[in-house]
Amino acid sequence: MAGPNAADRLEHVRYEIRGRLSRRAHELEKLGHEIVHLNIGNPGRFGFRTPQTMRLAMIENLPAAEAYCHQKGIFPAREAVVMQQQNRGVMDVTAEEVFIGNGVSELIDLTLRGLLNLHDEVLVPSPTYPLWSASVTLNGGRPVHYECRPDRGFLPDAADIERLVTARTRAIVLINPNNPTGAVYPESLLREIAELAERHELVVMADEIYDEMTYDGAKFVPMATLVNNTLCITYSGLSKVYRACGYRVGWCSLSGTAQDNRSYIDGLELLAALRLCSNVPSQWAVQTALGGYQSIHELTTPGGRLHQTRQAVIDSVARSPWLTLVVPQGSMYAFVGVDTAAFPDFDDEAFAFRLLEEQHVLLAPGSSFNTPYRNHFRITLLPEPEQMAEVFARINTVLEAMHADLARPAAVGD
After folding, report:
1. Given this structure, which CATH class describes domain 10-39+302-405?
2. Global pTM exceeds 0.85
3. Tens of pLDDT, residues 213-269
């Protein structure tokens, strides 16, 4: 008797960060090979620790964490998000407009589910974190990708975005600082995007999970400070800046015209209630995280580990005859290019598999991030600088072999 087939809605859903390459890496590990996992921004895998004050806050409040909490989250966590937004100049948010979720991933799904009708369109960057495109598709919408080209420093063009707006467009997604490219959007560009969103009454969905993670003086500007005449949803959480991926705590806050969108907020509360609540013990770390010392700055300034590893990537690419890089200004990733003049038929996925099999390095092909080109790959900046330099030595070993294969004349009969 035949078993069930996968649902049709999964046909166009991709999440290769944990796809075939990751499964093959797991198989190799079971055979005894040590794999360098650069495919996922998972700080705990590379020795980073959550700040001790956050761990203590959870322990001290465990007796208060055994029951379900309010569907939006515990009040101290939501109020901490309000205070952070107010400190940034976003004054129209109260705890009623804040939702705590099991990571930002759950809230992306929840907010899109509450917004989209069948065949509605959402403007999504390319490259993009693939969860955004997948969540739009799974909730009946259609992701429409706007280009953030390498020759523009992976920054979009507001006029190009506006030409994609149709009668079915409901929202625009921004990821700033960006995953996978590390781009940090300048205020002037953000203002242009905010204005076009207001003109077309689009919901602005601002994924700012890497908000405090910037380098070399790059300035992060919260999108909610620029959006006044349409709804703005800001997403963030503990997983990256606070190195607490396993806590699974994210939040979203609604501003702009949120007070005029009570029906939508009520819909989100209904969806939040259906899942009862998010992880309660970890929520007790939010207030301590947002109100305490921001240790991330020790890691991203000169001498800090993330800054040093980023420099190791920059130096390694500069030494390679085949690699290119738009230097990341934020987040914990680099989106590395391969010279197509040297490798005219370069395929990022085939390269990633070869690198994994021969050198035991796992990275994410650039096309996993919804790009129209196949000559990039994403790596995380989490390893020690010395290990990152070794990783690039392995990458160049594979590229050198591939280049030699191209130079070798084909055998007779091939």
Report:
1. alpha beta
2. yes
3. 999 999 999 999 999 999 999 999 999 999 999 999 999 999 999 888 899 999 999
pLDDT score at 303: 96
Residue 414: how many other CB atoms lie within 10 Å: 5
Residue 108 and residue 235 in contact, taking contact as beta carbons nearer than 8 Å: yes
Architecture of domain 52-291: 3-Layer(aba) Sandwich (3.40)
Six-digit token string for 242:
């606070």
Q: In which region does residue 89 sit, left (phi positive, over 0), alpha (psi from -120 to 50) or beta (all else)?
A: left
Residue with the bigger pLDDT between 411 and 271: it is 271
Q: Which residue has the tokens 């800054």?
A: 307
All structural domains of the chain with their residue ranges: 10-39+302-405, 52-291
Mean pLDDT score, 37-44: 93
CB contact set of 352 (below 8 Å; sequence gap of 6+): 21, 362, 363, 364, 365, 377
What burial class does residue 4 get, using C-beta atoms within 10 Å of its C-beta: 0-12 exposed, 13-18 middle, 19+ buried?
exposed
Share the mean pLDDT of the chain.
94
Name the nearest CA neighbour of 122 among 131, 132, 130, 109.
Answer: 132
The token duo for 169 is 């467009």
